[in-house]
Amino acid sequence: MTSTWNQDRAAKHIDKKMGDVDDVVIKDYARDMSLESIPTNAAYRVDAVHLYAEILNVEDMLNTHEVEGTDCHKRTLRFFDQHYRAVKRILDDVDAKRVDFHNQRLHALFAKPYNSETDAEKKRLQRAVASAQLIIDVLAQTADENEKIPAAKVRVGIDTGTTLAVNNGRSGYREPLFLGDAANHAAKMASNGTAKGIYLTNAARAVLGLAEQKEPIKVALSGAEIDTCITAADLEITADAIVKAWREDMDNNPIGGFAFTRQTPPLRDMDIPDLTPANTKRQEAVSVFADIDGFTKYVASHLDDNTEDVVRTLHVIRAELERVLTTEFGGRRVRFIGDCLHGLICEGTSQTTDPELTISEATRLAGGLRSSFDLALQKLQGAGYETGDLGLAIGLDYGPISVTRLGRKGDRVRCAFGRSVIGSEAEQCDCDGDETALGQAAYAAANDAVRKLFGSSRKVSNLDYLEATEALADSGDKSAKAARSEAYVNAAPAIISAESRVVQPYTVLPEQE
Predict the structure, then answer these.
(1) Average pLDDT taken over every residue of the chain
(2) Does position 350 have pLDDT exceeding 90, yes or no?
(3) Residue 45 and residue 166: Cα distance in Å, rounded?
(4) How far apart are CA 78 and CA 206, in angstroms?
(5) Structural domains of the chain ordered from first start
(6) What pTM did the predictor assign?
(7) Rounded CA gap, 74 and 87, in Å?
(8) How far does the chain reach from its first CA to its final CA, in angstroms?
């Protein structure tokens, strides 16, 4: 059956999710509280240091071949696997928490010592800086000449402060998500630069007694400043000891050969928790990044006042975005990255991907995401909740994508990677909160209707479901025409203003099981 978005279905789901968070509980995080089992209607205020480590030379591995074939994907996945295992061992030894390992980007949390201890924040920062240098030193020794895997070039960003921890994900993949300036600023310090080193925000520098910098994102800690933190932290582990234990781990628990098979569409049937290196899915697909624009500012302005509405807004929007991706369009959520959804969509058979159909459906999916986002805000505001000035920035790109889980058995992390993943995230980052952008590879592989819709800029504003479907159908897109026909067969006719192209809501009957 043709994929469609329907306002009635969206409204019912949004109402249900709003019911989940009628009563929200906010607690201060303390020792022995689990960050993995935060209830849906709860959030913890957490005073901690946030560390982001970005591996800068990942794209070099993907671009070693003109064609994005299996060899460069295998090499890149081995690269991720080796470095994930090494970094995980470091975090365990320094008593830090891995929040997420999103391909080339690590997010770790230093919550100990707790605030009850004297100079706790300073000690956390010193420990984070010492651990950051340990990560840099260890990853510099994890190259594998036989597999043509280089040493990682690492850039670290660090900030400190209070953030809001909420549940991130669904059953089978639950982890904490941290909302607030400290997490966001640390991420930007790591990802918004190309030079190696350890970079601290001015807030973190002030705690350590370091001079404020006009542009801290351009000023790495000096060797002497790092050594001072290393001495104060007095970590009980060294880079040589970590590397030795890591090599023994690699010998006792080898990575294993990466073997690729295809997932028969729809991708929502892909069982990611069952994937391993030897059972990796790989095929041409569209990578989708949908980011809630303005959310960090919204959280910062409500962290101490009306925090409950932050929890409500995030829960309702994310749940509805995932429903549109998976239920309506047969896509697969890879993960939530903060307030951003990363998903995949593919149309075709068990043997081949239909590129034009996949990109066409991804375009209408993007429209459905925006329509549901707008409806969710409308309903939240109608219920009296404060939602701030939020938007949705969407990036799409097309190409071969490998999906697997890396690490040791019992401690694996999901990974979906390819040039299109990097491309779609870059497109999303370049969008304002009302824009949808199409990557160059997707634009080149799309049909004429999609290219006409996005234009030479490959970007369009306010693309909701109706506009996407109508525009594509009017240009001869077969999938969009089928979706429009199905909507009209199962619904009262839409009333379209010829001058404004404003469409009055219509009701589509629920799809049969």
Answers:
(1) 90
(2) yes
(3) 9
(4) 39
(5) 7-21+258-489 (3.30.70.1230), 34-252 (3.30.70.1230)
(6) 0.91
(7) 20
(8) 11
